[in-house]
Amino acid sequence: MQVADIPLKSASNLRDLGGWPTLDGRRVRGGRVFRAAALAGLCAEDEAAIAALGLRAVVDFRGTRERARAPVILAGAINYSLAIEASVGAGLKDIMRTGQMSGHFKRADVMALLQEAYIAYALQNFGQYRGLFDLLQTEDNLPLLFHCAAGKDRTGFGAALLLSALGVAWPDVLEDYLATNRFWQRESVRDLDLPPGVSEVLLGAHASLLEGAFRAVRREYGSLEAYLAGPIGLDAGARTRLTANLLEG
User: Fold this and answer.
1) Which residue of 126, 158, 167, 205 is surrounded by the most CB atoms within 10 Å?
2) What ranges do the domains of the chain cover?
3) pTM listed for this prediction
4) What is the C-alpha separation between 100 and 78, in angstroms, rounded?
5) In contact, 115 and 56? CB cutoff 8 Å
């Protein structure tokens, strides 16, 4: 499947998670769940494009300061804050303010910090992702959109977790994750004074980070299924509701 975005003029990285085939021969339903970068400061044309999606719920993974700097208010949708506070790999301006990125970091150092952040998404912030899964089980919350700042890391892990739970094959999960490298407009963070070599790492989606987070899940819980059934709350009934809402057939 060719990943396609929903083009906007004043925001980016918006796409429908529908269309992916599952291992049991079904497909993720289109028009039900979307992922994006933060949709703040939209122009009138983009507001109309978003309104056409008919969103009923918006999940915001950004931290408190991020939301305050760039509020996201989409007409007709209830906003749910499931905050994952900015750390390495999320909230790029906050990373730079820490002064840690002084220009002496090597690529491997930055990747190691990002990997720590991804593992924290999985093992420390599972409550926020459980909140997303809970919302998706209720028809009245659909269509639903979830986002963070860039729609890259916190959103990327959430999308990968959701597609995996729905039975999408791992190569397709990775393809969706890496599509951010094509669709996210990095000009939105052009005011960051990134040291040489840091920009390439911080502003990209890297398969190794997602794979590392899922390895940590399997190491901690034995399997992805045990993690989904435990911390994410997908018992048999919850999985039935989720698949009924989000899978065709």
Assistant:
1) 158
2) 15-246
3) 0.92
4) 36
5) no
Give the list of residues 6+ apart from residue 4 with CB closer than 8 angstroms, or none.
15
Round to whole Å and give the CA distance between 197 and 110: 9
How many residues make up the chain in this entry? Answer: 249
d(CA 222, CA 229): 12
Sheet-wide strand order for 144-147: 15-16, 33-36, 144-147, 57-60, 78-81
In the chain, how many H helices and how many E strands?
12, 5
Which tokens belong to 83? 């905050």
Q: How far apart are CA 61 and CA 77, in angstroms?
A: 16
Residue bearing tokens 């407009």: 185
Nearest to residue 122, comparing CAs of 224, 192, 199, 50? Answer: 224
Helix, strand, coil percentages for the chain (3-state, nearest 5): 45, 10, 45
DSSP state of 163: H
Pairing of strands 15-16, 57-60: unpaired
Picking from 52, 44, 41, 42, the residue whose alpha carbon sits closest to that of residue 77 is 52
Cis peptide before 143 (omega within 30 of 0): yes
**Smallest Cα–Cα separation from 100: which of 195, 241, 211?**
195
Confidence check: pLDDT of 177 > 90: yes
Measuring CA to CA, how many Å separate 84 from each of 11, 24, 35, 137?
Answer: 21, 33, 16, 21
CATH number of 15-246: 3.90.190.10
DSSP state, residue 170: H
pLDDT digits (tens, 9 = 90+) for 35-71: 999 999 999 999 999 999 999 999 999 999 999 999 9
